[in-house]
Amino acid sequence: MPIPDRWSPYLLSVFRFVLGLLFLGHGVSKFFGLPPFPMPLNPLLTVAGVLELVGGALIAVGLLTRPVAFLLSGQMAVAYFLAHAPQGWLPLANGGEAAILYCFGFLYLAAAGGGRWSVDALRWRG
């Protein structure tokens, strides 16, 4: 087996961990002000913050990766179309690049799973 093929399940886990931590940071910003969130929380942003906080943590550790990633992918699609698309169709101009990247990163995890280093993998092995 070629070396890159052997690394694939481990790199998937690293990708999942980094994506989860970055996403978790958005929830931390909304609820704990680190760094300060630039606007007051309304009900929609509060729900988004809960999904970012809890979902980001679950993704980072790899617990319930597929269903959580699917849910977060949908959240990011909604975020793009509600917050960014009305400002123009080009993601580079409307500030929606991160939402699109999160959307498709989570969609990939929903299909691929959490990788070898995840709580999900430990649950299946045990």
From TrEMBL:
The chain crosses the membrane at residues 7-29, 41-61, 68-87, 99-119. InterPro entries: DoxX (IPR032808), DoxX-like_oxidoreductase (IPR051907). It is found in: Cell membrane. Keywords: Cell membrane, Membrane, Transmembrane, Transmembrane helix. The keyword Transferase does not apply. The keyword Transmembrane helix applies. This is DoxX family protein. The lineage of its organism: Bacteria, Pseudomonadati, Pseudomonadota, Alphaproteobacteria, Sphingomonadales. Belongs to the DoxX family. It is a multi-pass membrane protein.
